[in-house]
Amino acid sequence: MKMRATPVVALVALTLLAGCGGGSKTPTDLVASDPANKSFQGSFTNLPTAPKTLDAVTGLTEMVVGHGKTRITITAAGLDNKGQYFGWLHADSCSASDPGGAHFKFSPGGNDQPPNSVRFEITFEVDRHGAKLSGITADKTVDGDASAAKSVVIYMQKSPTETLTETNPPKLACANLAPESG
User: Fold this and answer.
1) Less Cβ crowding at N or C end of the chain, within 10 Å?
2) Phi-psi map region of 14: left, alpha, beta (phi>0 left; psi -120 to 50 alpha)
3) Span 37-179: which CATH code?
4) Is the peptide bond before 35 cis (omega within 30 degrees of 0)?
């Protein structure tokens, strides 16, 4: 007995195939390779405000702006995985007298907290057993165009040797955001 595809079955099959791995992007994808987006990149270096016992923080940050949104990603290493860290988008360069300066704000006269500023959690990569590794990652997308931001700063929320959260978290590492050449 031969099976024949009816027009409805053929249409359903084509619809399913079109949705499988076609690699098509929606207009809200924030990737550097999309020419409609602005892309910025920077490398982390330790700051003078970091504890002297801190290893060299190495890694990259990327910021992509487009379609009314901003996406910031970090991939780095050098932080003690017993500590807790977070990042902020900043308004000045890493070489400023106060490295990174103040937090970047979408509305300069507005408050210094999200959603008017960009704070993001930093998480440690884990091995297959769930143990924290030394590599860190962050990936945050927010509404608004942050292309005027100058840098990304990593702060220490809780020291690896302390049980309390820092009341005035020190700036550990900074990456200047430079436009990527297309």
Assistant:
1) N
2) alpha
3) 2.60.40.200
4) no
